[in-house]
Design a protein that fits this description.
The complex is a heterodimer of chains A (542) and B (344).
Chain A (H helix, E strand, L loop, with lengths): L1 H6 L56 H17 L15 E5 L4 E5 L7 H12 L2 E5 L6 H11 L4 H7 L1 E2 L6 H5 E3 L1 H6 L8 E3 L7 E5 L6 H13 L1 E4 L2 E4 L4 E6 L12 H6 L2 E4 L8 H10 L15 H12 L5 H11 L17 H7 L3 H6 L20 H17 L7 H12 L24 H18 L7 H8 L7 H21 L4 H28 L1
Parallel strand pairs in A: 3-10, 3-11, 4-7, 7-10
Antiparallel strand pairs in A: 1-2, 5-6, 8-9
Chain B lengths: L2 H9 L1 H14 L5 H22 L4 H17 L12 H11 L1 H6 L1 H17 L5 H11 L6 H14 L6 H10 L2 H7 L10 H10 L5 H4 L9 E10 L13 E5 L2 E5 L4 E6 L4 E4 L3 H5 L10 E3 L2 E4 L2 E4 L8 E5 L2 E5 L5 E9 L3
Antiparallel strand pairs in B: 1-11, 2-3, 3-4, 4-5, 6-7, 7-8, 9-10, 10-11
Helix pairs in contact in B: 2-4, 3-4, 3-5, 4-7, 5-7, 5-8, 9-10, 10-12
The chains are: A alpha/beta (542), B alpha+beta (344).
Chain lengths: 542, 344
């Protein structure tokens, strides 16, 4: 009985994050002041019982939703899914790292509240209503985790189970989306008159596609429309789906499976979560579950179930989380490393990996070109693509969500560092031939994508610090100075000269790296704006 | 047990057993025998009612009620040893009287009603029975759960739950005229719009809803009355150990004896005593009674005159708006005076 109690204990009634720090840890030294709470008169229908922990009006105090999500997280981690992994690490003070094994791996013992990505990220996805891919071998709890998300969104277990779309090689578009009603099909004089019996899952706020890499290519295209544009189409009939969180599972995140996953569909995946192995030290916990006949997904406490209104409100709260300028600049600097490809084109604007990709040339040929740069230091060489706008928007959204979950009002450097690998996991195409992977201890990053992306970000931040970009950012200063109204011809000329001088400085001896490419293009943009203004000024004066 | 209930339990046997086992793991208080009785006597009739309204909804209703009943039992609120006697009976009766709403959203309906009944008990108000029976009587007019909840707020306010005063006003503005008239127990439909009615009620805490709904409200004669006597000796279940003094602090009456400081809120239907925030008392100065004037045993306010010889030897007096609070040197009570519409 004692063991059962330990395993299936109730949700935490004490604050799950009792002393959340109020300031970001790096790159942001500004204090954060929380708005003063106002008196909240209890509603008649609020009391000891919670129907999804909301009042009848669907209202709840500010900050309560983050606490509720933390309670959900801890309930799942302590009760439902045996996932004793803390791979999203935070330190409150100096962390401890012990070197273990021949490979001299660092085994870290974080000093702050750390989290299991396998549980936390699907939860954040539920609130953000994005698309989450759970990858890992069979029996790792991918589908069970997705099922729990459906139950947490307020659906009955039966409904969630029925709504799961199981990918299989014979799956047709009709299987996925619905069928035309035979009676209307026979009697219809035009396509408009055909009535479609849409599948119920399309109308749900949690959509689960199990083994999506077993779906035939044609059906994947139909799925893409639903995932990307939130509507389904058959026989010219349209079904508008509600905003919802997607959970896709796959045994192989490299796109393998019965069918190759189409690239556009892979590109729509916002975050990738790895289902880690079962730790055999927890076998006893499994035994207790068998003996007590308890299925965690059937006993989700009502207190941690989110109503639609709560999810909407939590989503709004997440959007209110700020990103300090210093953190944003690090994202800018990191993102600027990857698109630039010097040998790709003659004209500056087309010196991108996209140009190479569209031309169909083998990347190995480009790699072989000598640019004079340090091939280990050039982070851009490690990828075969740059970051899309969608990828950057997803990074920002999930970083905000993680900060919100931790009770912060602003995104900290650590939030960004922790979330980035999971969001960019399927976005970056690694260039395994890059010299970086041949250096000592870096070969492991060919298989460890999470670790690789985190390392990329760390290296970018080191370079950022080395260049002193927090204090010395010429382009940012020129951008801040940019204003045309009321400028005299002499002022404009001075600014143009300043831009030209700066470009000349860079051209003198420094090699051209990714972040400089974006800087140069920004300077060209400013130069062009000043030039146009100067032309107008002259014509208006003459 | 009814066949409908038995069949529904059988269909979800594993699920329900699992939930009870989970609840048992966390709450030692749960007694399977007691829960069996609750299932048979409280939940089964509700499942029957749901079956009559919509047979397909039975499983959903049972699942929701099972969880709510389990939570109530776990918190010691339901069952023969429950802290609130009769809660289960009242809860069942109200839910049973609205089968359409029960099948529409059983979880929300069941937990909200249970919470409301607990609120009555928590506020020391024993009118939960009256609240239940009033809503049961009104049940046929509700077309949605929100209407029922809004009417519930109005009835709760009328039964003395003072913090429901503002929610009740907002409910009046949301509800159709026919429903709020019934919830306010108006003899005839309101002659004025909901917003006018609410403005009048908000302006005068002692105004009867029927008077506020009267078209001739402005022409009705008012007189100063003793509207409420509250407080009392603690030894007899009251609030104070010695005769209190009263003052107006930051727009609220504060009464104090040598041991107790209490903030008073009151209106036509109820009153409450609360511990005031100490900071507000520190910065307070005695407030003038404004337009209220005493002359011998007579009290004057905005042209109205009332004779209260029994209050002539008052020990303290304070006024907020149209209400005056008075204490006497040899009484543990606080006397509230206010203008009131004369009976026509």
């Amino acid at each position: 009985m004692g063991l059962i109690k330990r395993l299936f204990g109730r949700i935490s009634e004490s604050p799950t994050n009792p002393t959340p720090p109020k300031t970001a840890s790096r790159g942001d030294k500004k204090g954060v002041v929380r708005p003063k709470k106002t008196l909240d008169v209890a509603d008649l229908y609020e009391g000891p019982l919670t129907e999804g922990a909301t009042s009848v009006d669907g209202s709840s105090a500010s900050g309560a939703l983050a606490e509720k999500l933390r309670q959900a997280y801890f309930w799942i981690i302590n009760t439902a899914v045996i996932s004793p992994f803390y791979d999203i690490e935070y330190d409150d003070g100096p962390g401890q790292a012990i070197t273990i094994g021949d490979q001299k791996s660092a085994f870290r013992l974080p000093t702050g509240q750390s989290y299991s990505s396998f549980i936390l990220l699907p939860l954040l996805n539920l609130i953000l209503r994005r698309r989450c891919l759970l990858v890992g071998g069979p029996g790792r709890g991918k589908t069970a985790s997705a099922l729990l998300m459906g139950v947490l969104a307020g659906y009955s277990l039966k409904d969630v189970k029925r709504a799961i779309q199981h990918g299989q090689p014979q799956m047709t578009i009709a299987d996925l989306l619905g069928n035309p009603l035979p009676s209307s099909l026979m009697g219809a004089a035009s396509m408009d008159e055909v009535k479609i019996s849409w599948r119920k899952w399309l109308g749900m706020r949690v959509k689960i596609i199990d083994e999506y890499n077993r779906i035939p290519t044609r059906t994947q295209s139909a799925l893409l429309t639903v995932m990307a544009d939130n509507y389904a189409e058959i026989y010219d009939q349209i079904y508008e789906c509600p905003e919802g969180a997607w959970y896709l599972t796959a045994n192989d995140d490299a796109g393998g499976g019965t069918y190759q996953v189409i690239e556009a569909l892979r590109d729509r995946i916002d975050i990738v979560v790895k289902a880690l192995h079962f730790n055999s030290r927890f076998l006893k916990e499994l035994l207790i579950r068998i003996e007590s006949e308890i299925r965690p997904e059937e006993v989700v406490p009502a207190e941690i179930v989110f109503s639609e209104a709560e999810i909407n409100r939590a989503h709004k709260e997440i959007l209110q989380v700020g990103i300090p300028e210093a953190v944003l600049k690090r994202i800018e600097f990191f993102a600027g490393q990857f698109e630039f490809c010097e040998p790709a084109a003659e004209q500056f604007e087309y010196k991108t990996k996209d140009t190479v990709k569209l031309s169909g040339i083998d990347f190995a040929q480009i790699d072989a070109c000598e640019t004079g740069k340090d091939k280990i230091k050039d982070l851009g060489l490690q990828t075969r693509n740059g970051l899309s706008v969608r990828a950057l928007m997803t990074v920002l959204a999930f970083a905000k969500a993680l900060a919100w979950f931790r009770g912060h009002e602003e995104v900290g450097f650590d939030d960004l560092r922790q979330i980035m690998p999971f969001v960019l996991h399927d976005k970056f195409v690694q260039n395994p031939d890059a010299p970086f992977f041949e250096t000592a201890g870096c070969g492991v990053y060919r298989s460890d994508k999470i670790g690789w992306i985190r390392r990329l970000f760390d290296l970018a931040c080191s370079e950022y610090d080395r260049l002193g970009r927090d204090g010395d950012d010429v382009v940012a200063a020129m951008d801040a100075e940019f204003r045309l109204e009321g400028l005299s011809e002499a002022d404009v000329r001075a600014r143009l000269a300043k831009i030209e001088r700066q470009i000349g400085e860079w051209a003198k001896g420094r090699k051209l790296y990714g972040h400089m490419y974006d800087d140069l293009l920004k300077l060209k943009y400013l130069h062009q704006r000043y030039t146009n203004y100067l032309t107008w000024l002259r014509s208006s004066q003459s | 047990m009814s066949t409908v209930m038995a069949a529904a339990l059988r269909r979800g046997r594993d699920r329900y057993n699992s939930r009870f086992a989970y609840a048992m793991a966390g709450q030692k208080m749960l007694d399977p025998a007691v829960f069996e009785v609750i299932l048979r006597e409280t939940i089964a009739p509700l499942v029957e009612a749901a079956h009559s309204a919509r047979p397909a909804a039975v499983d959903h209703v049972l699942e929701s009620l099972f969880d709510v009943a389990l939570a109530l039992l776990g918190k010691g609120l339901l069952g023969p040893y429950g802290r609130i006697p009769g809660l289960g009976e009242r809860w069942r009766m109200l839910l049973e009287s609205c089968p359409a709403m029960l099948v529409a959203d059983p979880g929300r309906f069941a937990s909200a009603v249970a919470n409301a009944l607990c609120r009555f008990e928590g506020a020391g108000n024993h009118h939960g029975d009256a609240w239940t029976s009033t809503l049961m009587r009104l049940a046929p007019v509700f077309s949605s759960l929100d209407e029922l909840f809004d009417a519930g707020r109005i009835v709760a306010w009328r039964l003395g739950i003072l913090d429901q005063r503002e929610p009740a006003f907002r409910a009046i503005e949301r509800l159709p005229g026919q429903i709020f008239a019934k919830a306010l127990e108006l003899d005839k439909p309101s002659m004025v719009t909901a917003s006018v009615l609410v403005a009048r009620l908000r302006n005068d805490p002692w105004l009867a809803p029927a008077d506020a709904a009267d078209q001739d409200f402005d022409r009705r004669e008012k007189r100063l009355c003793l509207v409420r006597i509250i407080g009392g000796f603690r030894g007899f279940g009251g609030v104070f150990v010695s005769p209190p003094m009263v003052d107006a602090v930051d727009g609220a009456f504060v009464a104090t004896d040598r041991e107790t400081v209490r903030e008073l809120s009151a209106d036509r239907f109820g009153h409450s005593w609360r511990r005031p925030v100490p900071e507000s008392l520190k910065r307070s100065d005695p407030q003038p009674t404004g337009p209220w004037k005493w002359k011998a045993g007579e009290l004057k306010w905005e042209g109205l005159v009332g004779s209260f010889p029994e209050l002539a030897e008052r020990s303290s007096a304070a006024a907020i708006g149209s209400t005056m609070a008075v204490t006497l040197p040899h009484s543990h009570n606080v006397y509230l005076l206010a203008p009131s519409i004369s009976k026509s």
